[in-house]
Specification:
heterodimer; A: 435 residues; mainly alpha; 0% strand; B: 184 residues; Rna Polymerase Sigma Factor, Chain: A; 2 domains; 9 helices; globular
Chain lengths: 435, 184
């Protein structure tokens, strides 16, 4: 291969870091082409490192509120979107939506019991036990991963604010549906996020950024306080205290952010989640690790905090599979894969081991080993698990293994790891030994 | 193949579960917003479009067959919405990039240098023709495979390979001095 061909091949490669064999051979021999490769990798790294653009903090929340007002799916059959070069008018969509809203509005008015306020969203939402809590866990996990990759205080604050909003919704749900003891626990997590996370992080913002962002945060905190107050009347017996604590924490944090009150302290005693794998302990772990991640810029420690999340997920998978709950084990396996792929692996890759002193190298090795142990525990359990638990464990491992980055062999639609069927599933990225 | 949690969430959302859809919104909102921001060079337009995309996704979800994967399907809707926007009243894309990413912290030199390089790269990306910029950002920032991007645009994998090739070539030419600078 000549240099010109090599350059074309490099620019057209899906993974310039891992070029095809022929190009790799050329690169080994040619310093000029290696420099070109380096330049391309640098360019792509720069594009990847472009900061997440600012979004209005409550834009998504507004949308979520709007979502509850939309007609349910069955009423709005719409064609699957096709890739197309021409403009399509939005009017048919608007018309259909309006019709559907009219039909459902009438249906709702006719069906609601007289004298009672109707709740459109709740009436149409299928109730699955554990469903809302699982969804909350998945969303907070996503925030943890954003914190593990956050580039600045603004991103950290945004993620913490989203977590606080999620917890506030969850506390209100628990106050209506129980279990009541969870209201205090999850409310306590909310208090920690706003009192310790939001207030402390806001202090690190540059003055120019602080003003606008703090105003958004205070607005969100006020809203949470009002909603908690409003939920007291309909709360289960014993759940009102949790709501009141939440409202107090939100107001104190808001006051502290605007400078009109001292930094707040959580009223609810600190709770340390057990390594049990239950949904409640998983939620606790996610929130507490989020607080640590928000304070941390060292990729090695970030990876280690993600390890704590991974270990709790592994416990959850074992718990689910011991009861033969394949669906839950698989779901948690998928989350585990996300943590490996987006929380641990990228942070480990960022560590500059060449220039690291021996203690840091040793620490990096420990963190990597800890990561490996998480999935090894699953694999060992797979071998000796009772038959009822095996399908769930296998699904969890497969789900984790499918969370491979684009650079990993086997990534892509329909391309499963070839060794996956017979033997144990491939290890997720971050666990694979680096050459 | 789509990573796991989406599969279950998409199934639940297709059955009309709003919370599952809300979880999908949370998973994809930041990424979609980032891509649309790169394509429109405007926070407002990107935010409006992101919202439009999810509204359309919700209304079309019942007909989602899973042939191209949920993520690719979502980006396909976004890509279509972009085409609509550029031909519609919201107008053509602006050349310069805004506002929020550069205007916050004027003082420390290190921050300034970092931002300068970010601005260079971002502006060079923004100058790419949309049909090159879209696939490049999907490949680089979203780490999608050529195959997945081809599914979004409804073209062949080789077309996408060519577009990414051209985008990289153009950027390397434009940023040659910047990329060579620190070493020479």
């Amino acid at each position: 291969m000549r240099c010109k061909e090599a350059y074309i091949c490099l620019l057209a490669a899906q993974h310039p870091r891992r070029p095809p064999a022929e190009l790799r051979e050329h690169l080994e021999r040619c310093a000029a082409c290696r420099k070109r490769q380096h330049r391309l990798l640098e360019l792509e790294a720069e594009i990847r490192a472009l900061p997440q653009p600012e979004e209005t903090l409550d834009a998504r929340l507004r949308f979520q509120e709007q979502l509850d007002q939309l007609p349910p799916l069955a009423v709005v059959p719409a064609p699957a979107p096709e890739a197309r070069p021409r403009r399509r008018s939005l009017w048919p969509f608007v018309g259909l939506t309006a019709c559907a809203m009219l039909v459902f509005g009438l249906a709702w008015v006719l069906s609601r019991p007289s004298g009672l306020p109707g709740t459109f969203a709740i009436a149409t939402r299928p109730r699955t036990p554990g469903g809302p809590a699982e969804a909350t866990v998945a969303r907070i996990l996503e925030k943890d991963l954003q914190l593990a990759a956050a580039a600045d205080s603004r991103q950290q604050l945004t993620a913490l604010n989203d977590i606080a909003a999620e917890l506030s919704v969850e506390v209100r749900r628990l106050s209506r549906e129980g279990p009541v003891e969870d209201v205090l626990l999850v409310g306590g997590l909310y208090e920690r996020v706003v009192c310790q996370g939001l207030v402390r992080r806001a202090q690190t913002l540059p003055a120019a950024e602080r003003e606008g962002l703090v105003a958004e945060l205070v607005k969100q905190l006020d809203r949470s306080a009002q909603e908690a107050d409003g939920a007291v009347a309909a709360a289960l017996p014993g759940a009102a205290d949790g709501l009141r604590n939440l409202a107090i924490a939100a107001r104190q944090a808001g006051g502290s952010l605007t400078g009109s009150a001292a930094p707040p302290e959580p009223r609810t005693p600190a709770w340390q989640p057990a390594q049990s794998g239950t949904l409640r302990d998983l939620l606790g772990t996610l929130v507490l690790q989020a607080l640590l991640l928000a304070e941390e810029n060292d990729p090695l420690r970030r990876a280690d905090h993600c390890n704590a999340v991974a270990e709790q997920l592994v416990q959850g998978i074992l718990l689910a599979s011991s009861g033969g709950d394949s669906a839950r084990a698989e779901h948690l396996g998928g989350l585990l894969g996300h943590v490996m792929e987006r929380g641990i692996a990228p942070n480990l890759e960022r560590i500059d081991l060449k220039n690291a002193d021996p203690p840091r190298r040793a620490e990096a090795e420990r963190v990597e080993q800890r990561t490996g142990q998480a999935v090894e525990v699953l694999q060992r359990n797979l071998e000796k698990a009772p038959p009822v638990a095996q399908p769930a464990l296998r699904k969890a491992l497969e789900a984790a293994a499918q969370e491979q980055g684009p650079g990993q062999p086997g990534k892509g639609k329909g391309k499963k790891d070839k060794g996956g069927k017979g033997g144990p599933p491939a290890l997720p990225p971050g666990l694979q030994k680096k050459g | 193949m789509q990573p796991f949690p989406e599969d279950q969430l998409v199934e639940q959302a297709r059955a009309g579960n709003r919370q599952a859809f809300a979880a999908l919104v949370d998973l994809y909102w930041p990424r979609l917003f980032r891509w649309l921001h790169g394509m429109t060079a405007s926070s407002h337009a990107a935010e409006d479009l992101t919202q439009d995309v999810f509204l359309k996704a919700w209304s079309s979800l019942a007909s989602f067959q899973g042939t191209i994967g949920f993520r690719a399907w979502l980006y396909r809707i976004a890509s279509n919405a972009l085409i609509d926007t550029r031909r519609g009243p919201r107008g053509a894309r602006t050349a310069a990039l805004p506002d929020s990413l550069t205007a916050h912290d004027p003082s420390p030199a290190a921050v300034a240098i970092g931002r300068e390089s970010q601005t260079l790269v971002r502006d060079a990306c923004a100058r790419l023709p949309a049909k090159l910029q879209g696939p490049l950002l999907l490949r680089t920032q979203e780490e999608m495979s050529f195959e997945e991007i081809a599914g979004i645009y409804g073209v062949t994998e080789e077309t996408i390979r060519w577009r990414v090739f051209k985008a990289r070539q153009q950027l390397l030419n434009e940023l040659k001095h910047y990329l060579d600078g620190p070493q020479s």
